[in-house]
Structure formats: C-alpha cells, structure tokens
Amino acid sequence: MGLREWWRARRAPRLHIAADLGDGPIVVLIHGIASSSVTFDRLVPLLTPNHRVIAIDLLGFGRSPSPLRATYTIEEHVAAVRETLRTLRLREPFVLVGHSMGALIASRYAAENAARLRRLILVSPPIYVDPDALGDRRDRATMDVFLRAYEFLRLNKAFTMLNAEFLARLSPIKDVLVVSEANWEAFRLSLENAIESQTTVSDIASVRVPVDIVFGALDPFLVPAGLRIVETMRHVTMHRVEVSDHLVRKRMARAVAAVVDASTESESSTSLPVLPRS
Question: Sheet harboring 94-99: ordered strands across?
C-alpha cells in the first residue's frame, strides 16, 4: 500500500458491522448500491453453521455513516471497508463476497489487498466498460443504453425515488432497495463514481487469488459483453444460476453458499489454521 492509500485508509470512516456470527473460516459480505446487509438475509443462515460471517453496511447506506464531503468513489468505499476490517484484527485470510456494486468494491479491495484474501466471490456484478472499447456493434449499443439509463436515474431524483419505492414493495426481501432523502447523495454519487466510471475489468485482472463469478440467468443489470471479457481470465470461474435475477433470493443464496463451502473445503489443507477471535 502506498503512502496516499495508507493516509486515505487511516482517515476513512468505520462502517457499521451489521452481523458477526458463527465460527470457522471467515466470510466477509459486502452489499450493493441502495441496499444494506439485508441483501444477504437468505445467505447468512446457510453459512453460519461452518463459517464466521461478517456483513458490513457500505458507506452512506444502511446504518453506516454518510460523510458530508464524501464523493463515494471506489477508492473511498474501499478505504472505508479496509479501515473497518482492520479494526476487527482478522488473523487469517478470508473469503470476500460482493454483490452488485459491492462486487466492484470487492474487486478493487482484492486487487490491492491480495494477502488478506483466500478467495473472491462476485455475485451479480454489473461489469461495464467504455462502449467504444467493444468491437461488436450490438455490444456497444447495449452498453451505451445501460450507461445512459444510469445517468438518467441520477439526474432525475423524483422519478428514481418513486420507482425505487414501487420496486421495493414488490421485493421478497424487505428493505433490500432503499432510495430516500437520507441516502440520495450516496446513491447518486456511487452510481456516477463507482458504477458508471468503474475499472472492474482491470481490477479483476490484477487479483492474485481465485475469483468466482455467480450470476443469475435472468439478471436485467448484467451486460453479456462485460461478463465475456472477464470469463476469459484464467483465475476466474463462472457460475450461472438458472431462473435467478439480480437479488440474492433462495436459489442464488444456495448457489453462493455452495461456492463458499467448496472453496473453503478445497483450501483447508493449505490455508492457515482457524484461530479464536481476539
């Protein structure tokens, strides 16, 4: 870590730790935009019998702080996650699971802190690139539509909040989608500075631990071109979950839990021993 990154991490706010449950190999969960740790309500019970599970609310969301001068870039999100995990004094490499925007943040964290991880699991990652970087005309058009849609959402507050409220009422997971006055700035700036202007492809390429990508076949937020780029990387394994969308519903939760269990079991002979908490 360079001096700038060190200073940023030391100044970063500590995030709310929504859950720290169970014993065993450690799994850290990071949710996505406009959500909180409730994202993983279906997943946590599947992991706690054999793992210590830590769920964190991201900067500006859930019960974590919303600093007045925050710009909610990937760097700021990662610095806050890093500082929060530092306070836990974790003494063994852990599995890091990121969902949606949390997958983008987890990718950058993993690229910069490989020694802290044993594996990176990205769930429903919205991997976007500059449309001009794509060779296929249809891929360019699709990518452009997504990016323009996000720009529209952050520039039209009333429309976005109204539709988010409607979608939240339809969701099977309570409070999994919250766009309100309280988190509008975090939502708007995270959308612009962490999702629209992301560097996830290069971050994943820089990760030095195995990477699993778990995605739903019916996920409306995924652009196939983005997934195709990363699936060619040798350290990346793709897991397609049929009849699943963007949320971590029961089917997706079972798929993610299976990947976590398989990864910790296969690495148990080479990983550090599980130590009691300090």
Answer: 17-21, 52-56, 26-30, 94-99, 117-123, 211-216, 236-241
